[in-house]
Design brief:
The chain is an all-alpha fold. It contains 15 helices and no strands. The protein has 2 domains: 118 residues, no CATH class; 92 residues, no CATH class. Helix content is 71%, strand content 0%. The radius of gyration is 28 Å and the shape is elongated. The termini are far apart.
Length: 258
């Protein structure tokens, strides 16, 4: 348990490794969800959960076990990797199980920028169309307090204040002493949609910086999901590799004979 906790601390706070091993620091720092989307968002990962559900019943089917060897395709040749039909089914089943577990972790624990993205352009589009002023204000506060992750987060405070004045009525919740006419006059220059269009570069910079910041969070969970899925794909493709090598060996052996 101590080893896992230390690994989790290194992944979440790699700055302690900078003096010890700078290369490891940069590897961990750049380790993020956006670079590993491909291992979770593919056809095999999407259907793995379904295959896991029905795979148990396939394992109990003696007919499937006997026919999984593809005797017609291989001309009855023995497995090059000496894997039995029963073992092939188990490889497929447990491989799909691990892939499904990795995808479930991905769907459950992925950061918001990946959930509503998952790519950068989709996240920026989502931010412009769905996020409220409060959401953007919270992101700006994160950059102010915790610092920016990319150069996109290095914008002037005046730019944000200009956007805030145009996007939100400053007297909201403080207008008890104002008459209805005064309220309407104060609000006539407040337009969130127009403010976003006018300050598009600022909003885009905030969204891009937060995309990479959020994508680089929960590194230990990402490592667990990648490990499960990677082992799953290895097990899943062993029967396919064996079939390919068996057919290749049979073809080469047949053509070499007089």
């Amino acid at each position: 348990m101590k080893l896992f906790r230390r690994l989790e601390n290194w992944l979440n706070n790699p700055s302690s490794l900078f003096t010890i091993c700078p290369n490891a620091y940069f590897v961990i720092y750049n380790f993020s969800w956006d670079k590993w989307i491909f291992i979770f968002e593919n056809r095999i990962s999407r259907v793995a959960l379904l295959f896991t559900g029905i795979g148990y019943f396939i394992l109990l089917n003696d007919y499937v076990t006997s026919e999984i060897g593809f005797k017609n395709i291989t001309d009855g040749k023995n497995s090059v990797l000496t894997i039995s039909n029963d073992a092939k089914l188990r490889f497929l089943y447990f491989g799909s199980l691990l892939i499904a577990l990795g995808r479930l972790i991905y769907l459950w624990k992925r950061p918001s920028s990946i959930k509503f993205g998952p790519d950068l352009s989709s996240w920026v589009h989502y931010g412009f169309t769905e996020l409220t002023y409060s959401d953007l204000h919270a992101m700006n506060d994160q950059i102010d307090t915790k610092g920016h992750r990319t150069l996109y987060g290095k914008y002037y405070t005046d730019d944000w204040e200009a956007f805030a004045e145009e996007a939100r009525w400053q007297q909201s919740g403080k207008s008890e002493k104002l008459s209805g006419l005064e309220k309407r006059k104060n609000r006539q220059y407040v337009n969130f949609r127009a403010a976003k269009e006018c300050h598009e570069n600022l909003i885009r910079s905030i969204l891009i910086d937060r995309y990479f910041e959020y994508a680089a969070s929960r590194k230990f969970t990402l490592l667990v999901a990648i490990t499960l899925s990677s082992f799953g794909f290895v097990l899943f493709f062993i029967p396919a590799l064996d079939l390919f090598l068996t057919i290749l060996a049979g073809t080469l052996f047949a053509t070499s004979q007089p």
